[in-house]
Write a structure and sequence with these properties.
It comes from Sporosarcina quadrami. By secondary structure, this protein is mostly helical. It is built from five helices and no strands. The chain has one domain: Four Helix Bundle (Hemerythrin (Met), subunit A) (Up-down Bundle). 90% of the residues lie in helices and 0% in strands. The structure holds fe (ii) ion (2 copies). One fe (ii) ion binds next to helix 3, helix 4 and helix 5.
């Protein structure tokens, strides 16, 4: 989605809500498989969840940094600090996803991996709320 569309609060909020509810649904699905003891399906669900974070949420962050954030910074230089903070949020999401990928090579779905999947939901929710408040409202 291009910069101008991301500038509209309602449209942008809908992307955030869709992204978060998809991530919650896929996280819950993985947990259900775990509770059933179906490790093979849980492992596949974890792979799909990582892909989802990359293709839906991190790609949204990349697009913002390449378009929306640059535009806003040019038009409203006083928002530079806010944009730096929001970019750090994006980086946290990127770091946590990378950590999950690294851990999964040896641990599959460990308690630490689950903790990080939950952390992504929290960081992403706070980030979306702040981004809407600081840049779009
Ligand atoms: Fe963002
Ligand atoms: Fe966003």
């Amino acid at each position: 989605m291009s910069g101008p569309a991301l500038k509209q609060l309602q449209a942008h909020r809908a992307i955030h809500e869709g992204g978060l509810s998809g991530a919650i649904g896929k996280t819950e699905l993985m947990i259900e498989f775990l509770q059933e003891g179906d490790m093979k399906s849980a492992d596949r669900a974890a792979d799909e969840l990582v892909d989802y974070w990359k293709s839906r949420v991190i790609s949204h962050a990349d697009a913002e940094e390449e378009g929306l954030y640059l535009e806003i910074k040019k038009e409203n230089p006083e928002l530079e600090t806010a944009i730096t903070q929001l970019t750090r949020d994006h980086d946290l999401i990127r770091i946590i996803v990378q950590d999950i990928e690294d851990l999964r090579e040896t641990e599959k779905i460990s308690p630490t991996v689950l903790q990080k999947f939950y952390a992504l939901l929290v960081v992403n929710e706070i980030h979306s709320r702040d981004e809407e408040r600081l840049l779009l409202e």
